[in-house]
């Protein structure tokens, strides 16, 4: 486990967030966020609901706009230039809580859509890539079905494969297991673990603390729009520093 | 879209008009606005040229001039010497009259047919879906014309009611269906009739007060008063008593045959009847579908939950199903009312003097003021529909389910 | 129950029970009638009342229909044949059949052309309506159909419609070729090619090839006119409706408000006032000297009318899509045009199909309103030339009954199709 956590983290910075602030109307959702993510790092973001953790990762691919501060992804500064936004979005994959597969397209079409239209990959090549990643998430046999015919866990694995087909250098996970039945959570987490083992840079908002212990090399705890504590998983879980973190951990692990 | 003040302060480049989310939307809106202005300017320019060529101008002075045509059914005083404006007002009132009448009867038809379509009686169900399909799938104009034809070509002339052994007879001696319209008894409001009317209005308020009191009593003490027969009693007994106390001030003027036509009573012209009935029965078919959908929209689980709490079927209907179904039914019902108002403009096809037939028909043809007349006409209907939309918004905001 | 089971709580079934039929009283016709017709006393009363209503309806119409006269030249002849008996004078339908269908000015030798166009309409519509069951290649014919139908109904040389068709094909090819360079560029390119084709069609369209006798728009009438107005206006209004709906959903205030004002204005006034505009007002807004056929002006106004309603239907479909679909499309890096075309519109349109069909049926019924501005559609033909003629003055029921039946068949058929499609789409992908 410790071995997994140490591998392939380079000095190169993948995401740099400096002094970032966001408001919904007058409500201050994110306050002075500073964060540097190294290439190959696996970061788990935890915190009570409404703490701004989902908003934080949605700002990284400009699904939400931040009003103040600077976000740099893979050397590209996130500005209001749509070319920059499109570039960052095609470099950063995202997996949603409710999968958001396109119900009118087959699994294969879901996976090839963006490579064909955004990356301008020839269709055959896109399909080969898609099959490769569908095999990786262990559902190549479902390629011609529609999302509605799959279970929640399978749909989420397709969603992961769909993002991977864009060959992203960074993956964002927004509570990927929260909408799943208990027996399906494991299959999605296994997929994420294997992704982590290959050295993908990952930011995961999740409540799966087991996953955090197993693969994360940093856990960030957020509350009221601020980063309250961050540490290596062992330290974070065994020796939390702030009172809020202790309270949160006791609530989430206590039962 | 994006307001990122801080990230970077780069200098403005023209390409940012298309590529920068801050300017992009302004660019598109500017283009749209320019295109719009261009179109309006082009049309306006053509209008000016055409008007100049025809020696015309835009003026509403014709509204003050005498109309010079007769209208056979009016709610306010009108003669052929009245102005075009008065003719338009007569038309507006006639539109509102037929729209109001048709809304009321269409609701009745629709609710009955909609509820019966859910009846557990197979034959009734089939009969009602026959009604709904037959009327929904044929143009309302054809229905208006058919009913108008019945009124004028099939019903007997007043002269048929004459003689010892007439071809036609009045229903209950008081209502006559003739090809000149329907004659019904007209109430004569004698001295003291206002007292009776006021008593009746107070009784209506009294019924609500009683029901409120009964509910309060139920909440306070748990005692449930009967509501059915006391309501009826409160509604009618005082009015009837007052009617006799005041010496029977309200009487009916029955239509009577005199010469070749009926005298007395109230004549309702064939065009009004045709329009009224056709609109109600046509729109009733649509309302029936709304009612049915509204009741079906309340999930079966609601009935089961209420039943499992021990509520009786009638109370389940009143307390659980109807309040929820009405939420679904009323918005489309209101837009059906709007449809009735708009469809009443088909009056022109049967010669009923509504606003379309007066202002948009005869006045337009006589004065040649096409632009002005059509503009006023559209303005009137727009005001009506904006009014109805406002009512709808108020209703929607009032009943919106309190949800997160 | 055996004693051993009664004594202990634990229980294991050793033999499975076979299926058995229900008691006799629970099945059969009597059971069905008791349950569905005479369940309670009020219910029985209702049933009897319904039977009475049906009896009166049949008693009034059946003899009239069965005893109808189909061969006569005037209403007087009809009455002579009937000699006081009840019966319909359906001879008017056989006598004026062509007028009812094609109007009274369409050249009688050319009736086969609109008739053929009507038949081909089914062939053209089928691959769209039953897209799951018919080969996609048939859509090619659907694409060709508008030009073919135009040529058949209006006549003239085949060159202009053919050139226009080629222009559309060329525009599509140009669009496809430029698509990878951006949606806007591709649309502009396609439009450019199209404009060139239109100019070409206008200039060399005089070449006479496969010439059919030319029929003027004002000579269209009868049910043909209703069909032309219905199909043309509905097909034109769908793309405009989509654009209006997208505009209304836009977050650019000016574009949004232009669309809102247009939609709400059109929805706020009756169609008949718009027809008045087409009839007497529109000409004032066109450049002096241009003359448009009344039918073209009417098509413009009815299309505007229909697109406002279709826009509202599609807006409902757009609103019904979960926000996650927009976000997923964004997060994959699709731009606005791609997201709309590939993700949002295919789903929104699918949800909107029943609503669009409702609007189409309503619009088709409303085409009868053109009779008010003295155009001779089916209703206009009946009220005008036919009922006014001395031969057939007074044959109301047969004529209006026929018109009602014709509309009923089309509208009922289309709405049944829409319900079938809704079921089909509901079971889709599940």
From TrEMBL, chain A:
InterPro entries: AAA+_ATPase, ABC_ATPase_HisP-typ, ABC_transporter-like_ATP-bd, ABC_transporter-like_CS, MetN_ABC_transporter-like, P-loop_NTPase
GO molecular function per UniProt: ABC-type amino acid transporter activity; ATP binding; ATP hydrolysis activity
Entry keywords, A to Z: ATP-binding, Nucleotide-binding, Transport
Family annotation (Gene3D superfamilies): P-loop containing nucleotide triphosphate hydrolases
Xref: PROSITE patterns: ABC_TRANSPORTER_1 (PS00211), ABC_TRANSPORTER_2 (PS50893)
Stretches assigned to the ABC transporter domain: 15-249
Record-linked PANTHER family: AMINO ACID IMPORT ATP-BINDING PROTEIN, PHOSPHONATES IMPORT ATP-BINDING PROTEIN PHNC
UniProt similarity note: Belongs to the ABC transporter superfamily.
Protein's name in the database: ABC transporter ATP-binding protein
Organism: Roseovarius atlanticus
TrEMBL record, chain B:
Record's subcellular location: Cell inner membrane; Cell membrane
Keywords: Amino-acid transport, Cell membrane, Membrane, Transmembrane, Transmembrane helix, Transport
GO cellular component: ATP-binding cassette (ABC) transporter complex
Membrane topology reported for the UniProt record: Multi-pass membrane protein
InterPro entries registered for this protein in UniProt: AA_ABC_transptr_permease_3TM, ArtM/GltK/GlnP/TcyL/YhdX-like, MetI-like, MetI-like_sf
Family per record: Belongs to the binding-protein-dependent transport system permease family. HisMQ subfamily.
Name this polypeptide is given: Amino acid ABC transporter permease
Organism: Roseovarius atlanticus
TrEMBL record, chain C:
Keywords: Cell membrane, Membrane, Transmembrane, Transmembrane helix, Transport
Membrane topology reported for the UniProt record: Multi-pass membrane protein
Any Pfam family hit: BPD_transp_1
Keyword Chloroplast carried by entry: no
GO molecular function list: transmembrane transporter activity
Gene3D superfamilies, sorted: MetI-like
GO terms classed as biological process: amino acid transport
Coiled-coil intervals: none
Keyword Membrane included in the entry's annotation: yes
Domain spans labelled ABC transmembrane type-1: 223-418
GO cellular component labels: ATP-binding cassette (ABC) transporter complex
Alphabetized InterPro entries for the sequence: AA_ABC_transptr_permease_3TM, ArtM/GltK/GlnP/TcyL/YhdX-like, MetI-like, MetI-like_sf
Bilayer-crossing regions: 41-66, 111-131, 185-204, 224-246, 258-286, 298-321, 342-363, 369-388, 395-415
Top-level taxon of the source organism: Bacteria
Subcellular location: Cell inner membrane; Cell membrane
Cross-referenced PANTHER family: INNER MEMBRANE AMINO-ACID ABC TRANSPORTER PERMEASE PROTEIN YHDY (PTHR30614:SF41), MEMBRANE COMPONENT OF AMINO ACID ABC TRANSPORTER (PTHR30614)
Family: Belongs to the binding-protein-dependent transport system permease family. HisMQ subfamily.
Name of this chain's protein: Amino acid ABC transporter permease
Originating species: Roseovarius atlanticus
């Amino acid at each position: 486990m410790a071995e997994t956590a140490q591998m392939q983290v380079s000095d190169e910075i993948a995401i740099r967030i400096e002094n970032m602030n966001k408001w919904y109307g007058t409500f201050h959702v994110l306050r002075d966020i500073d964060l540097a993510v190294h290439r190959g790092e696996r970061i788990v973001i935890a915190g009570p609901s409404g703490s701004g953790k989902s908003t934080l990762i949605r700002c990284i691919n400009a699904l939400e706009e931040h009003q103040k501060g600077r976000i740099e992804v893979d050397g590209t500064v996130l500005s209001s230039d749509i070319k920059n936004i499109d570039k960052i979005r095609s470099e950063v994959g995202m997996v949603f809580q409710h999968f958001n597969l396109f119900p009118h397209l087959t699994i294969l079409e879901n996976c090839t859509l963006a490579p064909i239209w955004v990356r301008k990959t020839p269709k055959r090549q896109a399909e080969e890539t898609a099959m490769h990643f569908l095999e990786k998430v262990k559902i190549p046999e479902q390629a011609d079905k529609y999302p509605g015919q799959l279970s929640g866990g399978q749909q989420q694995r397709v969603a992961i494969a769909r993002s991977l087909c864009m060959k992203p250098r960074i993956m964002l996970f927004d509570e990927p297991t929260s909408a799943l039945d208990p027996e399906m959570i494991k299959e999605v987490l296994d997929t994420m673990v294997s992704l982590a083992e290959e050295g993908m840079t990952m930011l995961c908002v999740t409540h799966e603390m087991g996953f955090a212990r197993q693969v994360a090399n940093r856990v960030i705890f957020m509350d009221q729009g601020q980063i309250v504590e961050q540490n290596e998983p062992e330290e974070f879980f065994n020796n939390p520093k702030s009172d809020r973190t202790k309270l949160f951990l006791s609530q989430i692990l206590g039962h | 879209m994006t307001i990122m003040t801080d990230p970077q302060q780069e200098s403005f480049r023209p390409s940012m008009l298309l590529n920068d989310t801050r300017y992009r939307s302004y660019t598109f809106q500017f283009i749209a606005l320019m295109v719009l202005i261009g179109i309006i300017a082009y049309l306006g320019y053509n209008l000016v040229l055409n008007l100049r060529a025809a020696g015309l101008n835009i003026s509403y002075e014709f509204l003050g001039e005498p109309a010079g045509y007769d209208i056979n059914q009016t709610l306010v005083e009108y003669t052929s010497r009245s102005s075009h404006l008065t003719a338009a007002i007569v038309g507006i009132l006639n539109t509102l009259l037929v729209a109001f009448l048709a809304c009321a009867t269409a609701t009745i038809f629709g609710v009955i047919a909609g509820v019966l379509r859910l009846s557990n009686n197979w034959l009734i169900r089939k009969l009602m879906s026959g009604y709904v399909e037959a009327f929904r799938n044929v143009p309302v104009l054809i229905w208006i014309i058919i009913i108008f034809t019945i009124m004028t070509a099939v019903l007997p002339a007043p002269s048929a009611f004459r003689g010892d052994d007439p071809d036609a007879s009045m229903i209950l001696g008081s209502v006559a269906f003739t090809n000149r319209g329907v004659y019904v008894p007209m109430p004569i409001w004698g001295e003291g009739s206002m007292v009776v009317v006021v008593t009746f209005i107070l009784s209506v308020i009294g019924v609500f007060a009683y029901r409120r009191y009964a509910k309060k009593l139920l909440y306070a003490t748990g005692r449930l008063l009967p509501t059915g027969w006391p309501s009826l009693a409160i509604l009618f007994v005082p009015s009837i008593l007052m009617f006799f106390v005041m010496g029977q001030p309200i009487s009916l003027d029955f239509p009577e045959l005199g010469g070749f036509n009926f005298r007395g009573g109230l004549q309702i012209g064939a065009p009004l009847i045709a329009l009224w009935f056709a609109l109600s029965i046509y729109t009733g078919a649509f309302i029936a579908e709304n009612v049915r959908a509204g009741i079906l929209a309340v999930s079966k689980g609601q009935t089961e939950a209420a039943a499992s709490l021990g509520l009786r079927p009638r109370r389940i209907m009143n307390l659980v199903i109807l309040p929820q179904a009405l939420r679904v039914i009323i918005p489309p019902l209101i837009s059906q009312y709007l449809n009735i108002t708009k469809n009443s403009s088909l009056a022109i096809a049967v010669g009923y003097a509504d606003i379309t037939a007066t202002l948009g028909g005869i006045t337009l043809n006589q004065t040649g003021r096409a632009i002005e007349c059509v503009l006023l006409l559209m303005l009137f209907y727009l005001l009506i529909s904006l009014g109805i939309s406002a009512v709808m918004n108020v209703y929607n905001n009032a009943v919106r389910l309190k949800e997160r | 129950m055996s004693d051993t089971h009664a004594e202990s709580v634990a229980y294991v079934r050793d033999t499975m029970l076979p299926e058995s039929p229900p008691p006799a009283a629970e099945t059969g016709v009597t059971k069905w009638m008791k349950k569905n017709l005479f369940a309670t006393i009020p219910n029985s009363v209702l049933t009897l009342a319904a039977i009475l209503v049906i009896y009166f309806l049949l008693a009034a119409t059946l003899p009239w229909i069965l005893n109808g006269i189909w061969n006569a030249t005037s209403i007087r002849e009809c009455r002579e044949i009937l000699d006081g008996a009840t019966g319909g004078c359906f001879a008017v339908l056989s006598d004026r059949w062509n007028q009812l269908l094609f109007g009274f000015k369409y050249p009688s030798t050319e009736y086969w052309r609109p008739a053929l166009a009507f038949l081909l309409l089914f062939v053209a519509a089928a691959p769209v309506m039953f897209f799951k069951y018919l080969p996609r290649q048939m859509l090619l014919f659907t694409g060709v159909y508008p030009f073919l139908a135009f040529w058949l109904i209006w006549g003239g040389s085949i060159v202009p419609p053919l050139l226009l068709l080629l222009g559309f094909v060329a525009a599509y090819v140009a669009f496809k070729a430029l698509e990878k360079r951006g949606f806007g560029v591709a649309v502009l390119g396609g439009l450019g090619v199209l404009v060139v084709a239109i100019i070409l069609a206008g200039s060399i369209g005089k070449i006479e090839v496969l010439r059919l006798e030319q029929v003027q728009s004002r000579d269209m009438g009868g049910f043909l006119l209703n069909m032309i107005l219905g199909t043309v206006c509905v097909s034109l209004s769908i793309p405009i409706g989509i654009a209006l709906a997208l505009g209304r959903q836009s977050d650019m205030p000016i574009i949004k408000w232009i669309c809102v004002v247009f939609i709400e204005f059109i929805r706020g006034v009756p169609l008949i006032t718009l027809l008045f505009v087409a009839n007497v007002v529109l000409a004032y807004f066109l450049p002096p000297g241009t003359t448009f056929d009344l039918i073209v002006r009417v098509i413009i106004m009815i299309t505007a009318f229909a697109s406002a309603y279709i826009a509202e239907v599609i807006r409902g479909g757009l609103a019904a899509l979960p926000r996650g679909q927009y976000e997923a499309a964004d997060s994959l890096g699709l731009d606005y045009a791609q997201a709309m075309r590939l993700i949002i519109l295919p789903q929104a349109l699918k949800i909107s199909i029943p609503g669009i069909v409702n609007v189409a049926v309503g619009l088709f019924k409303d085409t009868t309103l053109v009779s008010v501005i003295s155009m001779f559609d089916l209703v206009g033909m009946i009220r005008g030339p036919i009922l006014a003629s001395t031969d057939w003055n007074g044959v109301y029921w047969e004529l209006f009954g026929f018109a009602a039946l014709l509309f009923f068949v089309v509208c009922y058929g289309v709405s049944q199709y829409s319900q079938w499609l809704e079921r089909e789409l509901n079971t889709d992908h599940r």
